Amino acid sequence: MTINEDIREKEVRVIDTDGSQLGILKIEDALNAAYAKDLDLVCLSPNTTPVVCKIMDYGKYRFEQTKREKEARKNQKVIELKEIRLGLSIDTHDFETKGNHAKRFLQDGNKVKVSIRFRGREMGHPEIGLDTMNRFAEYCSDFSVVEKPAKMEGRNMLMFLAPKTSK
């Protein structure tokens, strides 16, 4: 953003501090009007013809802008990806424990990546892994939606769950 003497145009459209238009002025007249009020001439949109400039306190403007950006960053929720690994022949209690972990992650607003690693002869039975994945998705269905269904990728079967949006 260019201010004061850095503006290289001959004529500019000037907006006053209260938002009223002063019209198209020569750059010298616009600068004099800004200096008369002890303020800066700030170029708001350099790509228009004529260039639009506003008379304002640039330091105060920058301060408020950084304050708004900081507030926006503070209100932003970062979604993490949590991973849960299951075994092909997982027992009931272990399954429920992993399911409860997944539910907690989903309630916190995170996505969950569920994976099963196939070892040795297990590679010959991907349908057992698919059944386990579907059972897991059903177990977590109160809090989640299946973002990406179970799919084999090499020796792993992966599925992604996303938290349900509450409307």
Can you give a write-up of this model?
The structure is a single chain. The chain has helices at 27-36, 58-74, 92-107, 126-139, and strands spanning 11-15, 21-26, 40-45, 51-56, 81-86, 111-117, 144-153, 156-163. The chain has 167 residues and is an alpha/beta fold. It has 2 domains: 4-73, Roll (Ubiquitin-like (UB roll)), CATH 3.10.20.80; 81-163, 2-Layer Sandwich (Translation Initiation Factor IF3), CATH 3.30.110. The strands form 2 sheets. Strands 2-1-4-3 form a 4-stranded mixed sheet. Strands 5-6-8-7 form a 4-stranded mixed sheet, with helices on one face. A hairpin with a 5-residue loop joins strand 3 (40-45) and strand 4 (51-56). The longest helix is centred in the middle third of the chain and has 17 residues, at 58-74. The relative contact order is 0.11.
Total individual domains: 2
CATH class of the largest domain: Alpha Beta
Question: What's the mean pLDDT score?
Answer: 90
Instruction: Label the structural class.
Output: alpha/beta
Q: Approximately how much helix is present in the residues?
A: 25-40%
Radius of gyration: 30 Å
- Number of separate strands: 8
CATH superfamily of the largest domain: Translation initiation factor 3 (IF-3), C-terminal domain
SSE topology string: EEHEEHEHEHEE
The CATH architecture category of the largest domain equals: 2-Layer Sandwich
User: Number of DSSP helices?
Assistant: 4
Largest sheet descriptor: 4 strands, mixed
Beta-strand level of the residues, as a percent range?
A: 25-35%
